[in-house]
Each structure stands twice: as structure tokens, then as C-alpha cells.
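Researcher: Next entry in the queue.
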Amino acid sequence: MSTTAPTPRHEAQPQAPATTPDQPYDLAGVGVGPFNLSLAALAYGVPGLRTAFYEERPAFRWHPGLLIEGTTLQVPFLADLVTLADPTSPWTFLNYLHDQDRLFPFYFAERFHIRRAEYDAYCRWVSEHLPGLYFRHHIDTVRWNPDRELFEVDYAQLDADDEVVALGRAYARHLALGVGTAPHVPEPLRPLADAHGVPVLHAAHYLDHRAELLAADHVTVVGSGQSGAEVFLDLLRRRPHGREGLHWLTRTAAFAPMEYSKLGLEQFTPDYTRYFHGLSESTRDALLPGQWQLYKGIDQATISAIHDELYDRTLDGGWPDAVLTPGVRVRTAGRVGTSTIELHVEHEHQHTRSRLTTNAVVLATGYRERSIDTLLADLHPQLCRDTSGRPLVDEQQRLVLDPAIKGSIYVQNAERHTHGVGAPDLGLAAWRGAVILNSVTGRLAFALPRRTAFTTFGLDPAVRGGGQRGGKLSDQRDRHTVART
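Model: Structure for this entry, 485 residues:
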């Protein structure tokens, strides 16, 4: 496939064309985040495949509130939207640089891990050139039409004020749900986070409120992952020496580094994903909490930068006014007066309690998968679930549905309970998209590697196989023992 610059779409906000049951889409996507954008970009290269992807937002943006200056992706640039499945695609990061006349500067920069802001700009470049993406389109209902053996997707087109300007319906043989995740606010802090005028905010909105936070006398950061570390470091660098007024709390026993050894990272390979998927539900649930350092730790460079900044502030004598306390959870929180927030905290190992007063709180408390239950309300009786009530997802990323439904619903970043820690990882985006498209087309549209890790996971030699380079794609709808709700 040629790597010449793609032709831009000229219409700023196109209305999705109407489809008919006689000319349905082969695949319709709900949501245009990195994973469905990856799927759409890979689908562009499959001859004869008709696709459409709908997104409620006005344009692609990737965590805009956390694009702090100098922050980098935690995966190499090769983990772009397409390269690990199709390096000849016109939608590679390198072709983006070529189109922007920046390939030689990138070559001399020798950056394996690119800036987050650059990844966001790259994805927006793809979204602005790739046909078949429809922003400002809110999906209202998804249903299965048994007579036509198609999914019906009802949507509303929105204007710049989020008012409905048109209604439409699309028909599709298969669906791909990429509805993403939502910022998680712990229960004790939700009333304050929801209250007007109280500076308690999730890290996802950090840059929107940075000036306000810098003006506060004291700021508390809650959460010890990469986002918490980056927010703490950014505030530390911008606040005056000796008057930092910062406190960093975390429930983890330490400000721990992310697992980044080469063999450790093989748990983000397709080989490990297949191994994890083959384990029992109870074993998977027991494994996940112990793997937190694979995706919730802090990279070594950020840890070093924080220590260096703190150390440099001791050179003139004294210690910075910054307190870092691991092993602490927030029990309750309340507002005292007009400008003070009181956190009631407990040390989980000492079993001691205390009160912390602060003027602003940044919650780096992660994200949770958005529920697909509302979107799929009409399909609840046909949706198969595990013993914990979660949707079952087969090895080809399909929700396990009643056999009467002939179409497939694929999910992205909604399957950590079945596919493991790699579900939200950008490095598996292209591989997963290729798996989905091979399943949609019923043929090997993408030749995937038979083996991706030096580690052999488990004693079953079939686990390290499973690549789709030859043979027939199997249908795995009947593999599961399921509970229906």
C-alpha cells in the first residue's frame, strides 16, 4: 500500500449518509477514541469493506487535560494506530511525520517514546483525513432486526451547541463498541467534586484548572499512578521554593515504579492475551489485582525527575514544603468555610487516622470502563454474562450473544476481565483491530504473527500459537458456559 499523504476530507462536519437494509455497512463503530480510530484506519485498507464510525464529540481529542508539557507516551512510537498490524498503511506515525515535513527532525531527535501532545496531534491528523468518521453524532439506540438479520443504529446529529439538528438510522452487519473509559472519582469525594465552586477535580481536567491550582495556598494530589506523578511534578516545578504547599497521598504502600523490563512487558503481547483469556474466571479475577504495577506504576524517568526537583530545593538549606505519604486512604471529606477542604485519612498499615486541611484537591484516581448496558438495553436478554454479571467476550473480541443473533458486536477496552491488562494498552490496538477485521471479513485480511513473546505462558503449547497466518477462522460462540440475565 502506498504511503503517500492521504487526501483530507473537505467537509468540516459531514452528516452521516443514510443506509438502507439493502446496502448495510459491514461494520459500524460507536465511539472514535484511539482504538476505534485504529480499527477504522486498518479497515480503510480492506477492499470492499463498508464502514462508518460515529462519535458524539466535535473532534478527536486524547486526554487533553493531561497533555502536560514534556510528558511522553509509555509505549514506543511503533504502537501507533496501524504499524504493528500493517506497517505499509498510509496512517502510520512515520507517514504523518513525512506529511508534516518532520521526518528528518524526528530522525535526529532519536525519540523512541514520543510526546503525548504529538500522539494527540497524530491521531487528529488521521481523524481529519480518514473517510467514514462522523463526529457530533450521538448514538441513541442499538437493536437487532431478526427479519433483516442486521443491526439498526439510531443516531442524532448535533450542532455546535449540542442541539439535535437531524435524526438518522444506519444498518450494519456488525458493530464495534469503542466507548472508552470515564474518570473515576472515589465515593468519599464525589459530593465535593460535584459541588459548584469547590476546587476538587479529576486529573483528567488538570490543565483546564492549572492556573487556579497554582494560585491556591495548598494543593493535595491523591493517587500514585503516572498521572498523579506528572501532576505533582508539574505543580512542584511551578510553585516557589520553600512555599510549595503540596501533599501527595496514595493508597499503595510506596510510590512504585512501573514494570518495564523486557520480559515483564511480554504480558502486553497477544501471546499473553490468549493465555489469560483461556484461564478460568476465578483465576483471572485473582490475577488482575496483583498486576497493578504493569499499568498503574510510575515510569522511572518521572520518579527520578521528582526526586531531582525535591533534592535541588534542599541546596540552599531546609526541605521543600512538600509531603509525600503512601499507604493512606481518604475515608471522608468535607468543606470547612469557603476556601478549605478537610480530608479525613487513614494509614492502612499503622491503622491511625488524621485530618488534612488543604485548599484544592487533584484526584489522579484513574478511569473505569464505561458500561455498555445502556447502549445495548434492547439486547440484554441476548447478552451472555459471567457469574459476576459482566459481559462475556470471546477470543475474537466479540460479545457472546444468543445464537439467534447472526451479527457480531466487538468491544475494545471493555474486556480487561476476559483479556487482561493489555485491554487498555495502546500497543495492542493495531493487533486487536486486525483480529476484529479478520473476523468481520471471515478471511485473513491481516497476517498476524504466530508468536509474539519469548515467554511461554502455561504448559499448553497451543497458548503460544493462535496467530492467524493460515487456516480457517473458527467461530467460538459456543465455547462458554454462560449465565443469562
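Model: The first strand starts at residue 25 and ends at 30.
Researcher: Noted, moving on.
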